[in-house]
Structure formats: structure tokens, C-alpha cells
Design brief:
The protein is α/β, with parallel strands linked by helices. The chain has a domain of 151 residues: HypD, alpha/beta domain 2 (Rossmann fold, 3-Layer(aba) Sandwich), CATH 3.40.50. Helices cover 39% and strands 19% of the residues. It has a six-stranded mixed sheet with strand order 4-3-5-6-11-10, sandwiched between helices. Helix 7 packs parallel to helix 8. The chain is globular, with a radius of gyration of 21 Å.
Amino acid sequence: MKYVTEYRDAESVKGVIEEIRRTVTRPWTLMEICGGQTHAIVRHGLDQLLPPQIELVHGPGCPVCVTPLELIDKALAIASRPDVIFCSYGDMLRVPGSHQDLFSVKAQGGDVRVVYSPLDAVALAQQNPEKQVVFFAIGFETTAPPNVTSVLQAQHLGLKNLSILVSHVRVPPAIKAILSSPHNRVQGFLLAGHVNAVMGYWEYPPLSEEFRIPMAVTGFEPLDIVRGILGLVQLLEAGKVEVINAYQRAVTLEGLKPAQDAINKVFMECDRKWRGIGMIPMSGWCLRPEFDFFNAEKRFDVESMHADESPLCIAGSILQGLQKPHDCSAFGRECTPESPLGATMVSSEGACAAYYKYGR
């Protein structure tokens, strides 16, 4: 398959890794920011093929993993109402709240439905005017355009029974928070190609300059990832601070301007709590006041709910690259995909799920 098969060619990947081996002269710690890249790295064993001087640590780029516990509890409270059809992507159904998950609510009779697009929720609102339809709008910049489109479409149709529970987070503030930590170990970043396809990468050079750290926009196939790693190693060995684009077939500097315009029309930047990490200033998006009618938190009066994280789960340290899943005493014991303590064990992009699935 074009743009897939050739980027999974083993000989090409080995060739780039050999070039990395010839280039590297000292230890470097690199972070892939995206959970999809984490799974690709572990699935294909790229971390084990790299020379020992290169350590990969895993970042907070899994939107399911960083959705705060209290927002999961808000979703559960809304989904439990008899007048609500609660719509979500499938990977949110197993994420544990304080006492249960969305699967449990569904088993108890709640009308919880897996959808493949926020526009499916718009259609359900049209088909069920007697019900309140709520869409769980989570994600990084990648999923924001379809989510804002659903709001604009509902406004255009005059729907009174659709709202969204927003948990959007943004990558640049998360990177800044990681680099600002006194415990930071990261010396180079692999940036998330799908985020940059939407937003471009114009926000990253100022961060790179401020913290004197190179970054590489990277895709998700093995060859994409090792090319990004090679680019970072070359920059680090040369003492250069730049942002390079190793995913030029999908990403431009400016990104998709119409998508950015739609996002800015419906959303505005806001402080956002990240599960296991805490509050990161201006790291999220929320609805603008003129779209408050579609705000599920306000419609169902759940804004004031709060929750405490499990003391056993070290997901926050994992998501900041400070520890790895096997450093957790509960990993594979108290915490498994069947009985997860945190979202990193159940998300399709979670680092703990990757380590568990692929036997690390």
C-alpha cells in the first residue's frame, strides 16, 4: 500500500538505524510525544534496535490517558441520566473513573453509544428529539476540527438537544511544562505528525530556542520514526537547536488554515488539568462564551465535581518521561487491562498498554 508498505520496509529501517549507530557518540534521551508513536516503537521493537546510547521515553500525547479523573466522573454522571444518550469513541469506555467506567454505566442500563464521528451524535440528536445527546469531545489538536464542526452543524440545524463534554488538550504547553520541570531528562522531542498536519509546526521554534532543545516532526511508521530519531541525533551531536520536518508528505509549517480558523471560531485557550500531571496553564481548549449553549458541563450542572487520583498509579511520571511502566509496582499485578488503575493501561495509545501487550 503506497505510503505505508514502503515505510515499513525492514531493510530501509535497518539502514537508518545503522546511520544512527555511526553518528551517535554519547548518551541522549529522546521523547516521542505521541502515544501512537509509543505503540509503533514498542510493537516494531525500534527501541531495542537502536544503539544503547539512545533512550526513548514516553510523553503525554495520549488524549485518553491525560483526560482528568474528575472529567471521567462528570461523563459518568451525565451518562447515568435516563434522559441522555451519551456518545463516545470506543477507547473511552474502559477508562476508570473514581468508582466505575462507561461500560459499567451501559451495563446498568445507561444509553451509552460508541460513535465513529461527532457528526454521528448530531444525527442521533436529530433522530431523538426527546433525548439529550452528549458527545465526549476529547483529544489533542487532531480531533478538534471535527468536534467544532459538530457544534457548528448543530447550531446551523437549530438543535436544542445536543451538547459536548470538552476535554481538549494542546501539545506545545505540555512540552513547555515538561521542559520547565527541574526533573526533566528530555534532550530532544519527536513531535506528533498528525497534530502538526492540522496545526503546522510554527509554534515549536520559539520553544526550541527558549529551552535550547531540538525537535523533529515525525510520522508513525517505523521508517518515519527512525528518520526523526536520526535527525535529532545529528542535531544533538552537532550542538544545533532546530525544528526539522521529517514528515513532509503530510505536514507543512503553516498547517491547515481553514481547520485552525474553525477551531478558533468555536474554542478558546484555557487552563486544563492533565490526569496524573496536574494543571497546565493555557494547555486546553474550551467553548467560547457564545457557544456555551452546547456546554454539557453547564447544561447538566457538573462543573464543580472533583476527584482524587489513585496513589498506586504512577501514570503521571510515565507521561512526563520520568519513569517507565515496568517501574510501577502495580504494573501487571493490581493494574492490568482487565482491572486498570489508570487510563495508560486501557487506552489504545497508552504506554502501559503497549508494554503489557508486547511483553516488555
